[in-house]
Amino acid sequence: MKKNIGSLLALYPLPVTVIGAMNGANPTWTLVAHVGIIGHDKVLVSLAKPHFINSIIKETKKLTINLVQPDMLPEADLAGSLSGSKEDKSQLFAWLTQDGKSPIIEKSPLTMVCSVVYIYETDGFESFICTIDGTYVEKGCMTETGKPDYNKLKPVLFQFPSYEYLATGEVLGKCLSFKSKKEEK
């Protein structure tokens, strides 16, 4: 029997990302797991209002979403532990830019360069709704058809209730393939 545990936010795990934005000539970074998909053409990045990076994103209307792999976790965790208003986080990662406005972490296997089109505010949070201007993937982390291969990307996951990082697991089956297996029985 299920027990009602209240209005607990329980849609976890989520991918761990480092959000980047250009603060003048240098980037700043923060760790974010509250990212999501809105339809097939927009993404959402939700940040607590006090984050230093929020004002930069609102000014530039640009951000990057850098997927975190296990070997990036120490620096990524530090990006979420330090305040950008008190510490210069620009040297946490080696980075490059394709457009002069969006910092891409070189070590990240997948980065989405985004433009902010809307900011949705809730109590204590600003959610940046973005279009995807470009997705950059390491060649060794793609399928033969040129799509991201998440078995090779191995993104780190985060679960909020216990504040733990998790690894991705095994493939359980192909999406929308179970209907045919049911019909065979």
Shape: globular
CATH superfamily: Electron Transport, Fmn-binding Protein, Chain A
Can you count the beta strands? Answer: 12
* Count of discrete domains: 1
CATH architecture grouping: Roll
CATH domain class name: Mainly Beta
Radius of gyration: 18 Å
Major pleated sheet: 7 strands, antiparallel
Q: What structural class do the secondary elements suggest?
A: alpha+beta
What does this structure look like?
It holds the Pfam family Flavin_Reduct. Its cofactor is FMN. GO terms for molecular function: FMN binding; oxidoreductase activity, acting on the CH-NH group of donors, NAD or NADP as acceptor. The protein contains 4 helices and 12 strands; from the N terminus they run βββββαβαββββαββα. The strands form 3 sheets. It has a 7-stranded antiparallel β-sheet. The radius of gyration is 18 Å and the shape is globular. The chain has one domain (14-184): Electron Transport, Fmn-binding Protein, Chain A (Pnp Oxidase, Chain A), CATH 2.30.110. A hairpin with a 5-residue loop joins strand 7 (95-97) and strand 8. With 185 residues, it is an alpha+beta fold. The protein has helices spanning 52-60, 73-81, 150-153, 178-184, and strands at residues 14-15, 17-23, 26-32, 35-38, 42-48, 62-67, 95-97, 103-105, 110-122, 125-137, 157-159, 164-166.
